[in-house]
Structure formats: C-alpha cells, structure tokens
Amino acid sequence: MTAVAEAPTRRGGVRALWAGNPGAVVQRGILAARSSSWIVVLSGFFEPVFYLASMGIGLGSLVGDLQTSQGVEVSYAAFIAPALLAVSAMNGAIYDSTWNVFFKLNYGKLYEGMLSTSLGPLDVAFGEILYALLRGLLYASGFMIIMQILGLNLAPTAILAIPAVLLIAFGFASLGMAVTSYMKTFQQMDWINFVLLPMFLFSATFYPITVYPEFVQGIVMAFPLWHGVELVRGLTTGVLSGDMLWHVLYYVVMIAVGLVFTTKRLRVLFLD
Q1: Which of 5, 24, 65, 96 could form a disulfide with 132 if both were Cys (CB 3.0 to 4.6 A apart)?
Q2: Assigned domain for 58 exists
Q3: In the predicted model, is pLDDT for residue 8 greater than 80?
Q4: Assigned domain for 24 exists
C-alpha cells in the first residue's frame, strides 16, 4: 500500500525525469538496427565518400589549391574532406534523431511504453541522442580512415577531429530530437530537409566563405554546420586558433538547449 501511495510522488519529482538508465534505450536501438535497418545505416556512410571522390578528386584536378579561413593553401580535396567529415557526422546524427524518433513518437508509440516503466524523459532523450551519436561516430570514423589513406589529414591534430565530430553529432542529435518532438505530420518533417540542404551547400563546404558578400557571410556563420566545418578543418590542417573555442561553445549551447526542450516536451506528452 505504501509503495502504491509513493508512486505518484516519485513520478512527479526528480526521479520522474531521470532514472539513470539511458543505456537501455541505446541497447534497444542497437538491437533494432541489427535486425532490420543495418542496410540503411550502412548506406549513409557512402554519401560523403561519393562526394569526395567526384568533387574532391575529380573536380579538384581542375580547381587546384584553395585558401582556408586561416590563410593556409591546401588542395581542393583536403579543403572539402574535413567539411564532408562534419557533414557525415551531422547526417548520421540528424536522421536518427528526426525520422527515427518521429516514427517511434507518433506511430510506434515506443516512448509511451518506455515512460510507463522506471525510465524518465531525460533517460529517453539522452538514450536516443547517444544512439544517434554512435551512428555519427560510425560514419565519421570510417570517413577519417579514407581521409588518412588518401593523405588528406595534413597534421597530427587531425586525430582530434574524432572528438570534435562527436560534439557536432551530439549537437545536431539533441536539437534534431527537440524539433521532432513538436512534429505531427510527414509534411512537417519535410522542413528538416529544407533546412539541411542549404546548410550543406552554403556552409563553406565546397568553397571558402569569402566568396559571399559580407551580409551573406553573417547568415552562413549563424548555421551550426559552418561552426562544425571550421572546427574540423582547423584540426585536419593543423591550424589551431582561439576561434575554435567559440565553435565548441556553440555546440555546447546547442546540446543544452536540445536536451532541455526534448525532456520538457516528452514530459508534457506522456507524464503531465
């Protein structure tokens, strides 16, 4: 009788938000990927590889060398490869934290079942984001190996691109899940691709940001992907600067905002 009486209090307090077991959500995601969606997961790895082969190697033979924002001359392939590495982390994280979450939230009713157990909304949010992070890490690690084979990692600091990529994936996964928690229809989800495509094309991915007028540069610098591209490019070329700390801070804020909004949204949907 006491346990029954205490249950509502526990669900209404801190324990309702966090049970300390996001690993259960990650484990469930890994098992689901192994049994049904591993081909989809694998296919996402090849997109940046094809871009690198066609544009970095093919078009790069016509373009020649480019100057990074730090003033270093590099080959075109070495210029776009770190950008594609950041894009790879973004794609791996964002697709898992948007479309995957959208189906579980609105059709699979998976989160409703999870939150009927001891798990809290923060467990679910953090677990899903960690799973998306694993996918981003998988893509990025494979792409880093290809960059190393092609000689596109120009400095020993390139190894630091892996934790940088994890930060990028974490930021996009957090914000992606927060946005998706408000989506109700497939038509609304199309807005995600509408935002991602211009970010991919204009975030100094294929050419320096200096080609734009100054007011356009300001818009591009507001994009999260631009911060990721600049951070990874600085690490792979070995040109470190204090501006990297601002890029890191941008993603730290992005992660915090995403976690707060996702947790609040899941609590409103299933616990209040």
Answers
A1: 96
A2: yes
A3: no
A4: no
